[in-house]
Task: structure prediction
Amino acid sequence: MLNLKNKSLEISLHLLIWLVLFFLPAAFSIGSEGSWGDIFQHFWLQLIFLAIIFYVNYFVLIKWFFSDKKSVYFLTNMALILVLIYFRNEIFDFFEEGKPKGFRDKNPPVGLRYFIDFMIYLIPVAFSIAISSGKKMQKAEEMKIEADNIKLQAELQHLKYQLQPHFFFNALNNIYSLIDFAPDRAKQSLHSLSKLMRHLLYKTDVEKISLSEEIDFLNKYISLMSLRLNDKTKVYTNFPTKIPSLEVVPLLFISIVENAFKHGVSATQPSDINFKMEILEDEIHFTASNSNFPKTDTDKSGSGIGVENLQKRLNLLYPEKHEFHSCLNDGMYIAEVKLKTK
Result:
């Protein structure tokens, strides 16, 4: 449909240009002593031959210019131009026969007329090359954009498939740790995990989801992860109660939440984990802060790809519309994401 619309626009534009070119000589001749025959002889005949050269090049000969037949292209054009110049001069002489001899003697020599016509007839050849080159460059740019888009989608799909097993592994690892000393809570965790997996199955194949759905998912995940915590760890959440109708990419903040639970919990020391989200018009500020208990090299809980995955997704999905900062401040690890949703 779009190609048909572009084609119709191109045809209309060509018709408009030629109508203007054919109308101008007649408009300028109003009030003068010139006849319609003079207008045809000196203007319209030339325009007809210019149009023939342009469209023969534009639709037929130009393919040779963009191939290895450039010499054939230029020779064919030269022959076409010379033939049209010959016919134009024959028609011109036919119109001149009825005029006085003194008037005919004022015309330039035949050789000069051939040279001038030849130079004029090169103009539509140059135009056809320029227009066709522009269309080829535009098509190449469109193909590049399409290829880049396909590459982007493939990379995003890879990141999403990378994130989901990572999330699932962390949740299972959490449940596994509950089986021996808190089987009832392990059962509750499995039930909560099933709800989260339903979200993963049905909500993450779309480009964006509502912010309220994303916050609901985060709350459920935080509740799931909190089941394994002892009394020494306190988890605080501060999410907006009135959520505007904004949309975000699914699973955008989960990596920060996972990271906070992974590095913010100690079996022996008191620890705090804080999650806060603020909405300022079309901006979302999400902050996670947690006590810092770095994992040792031998600790393989989680794959360590979460935050790196988040940074890549932000760069691809919110170019120049996001900020991501993380730092260690007074024993607390702080990670902050700022998003512009529009």
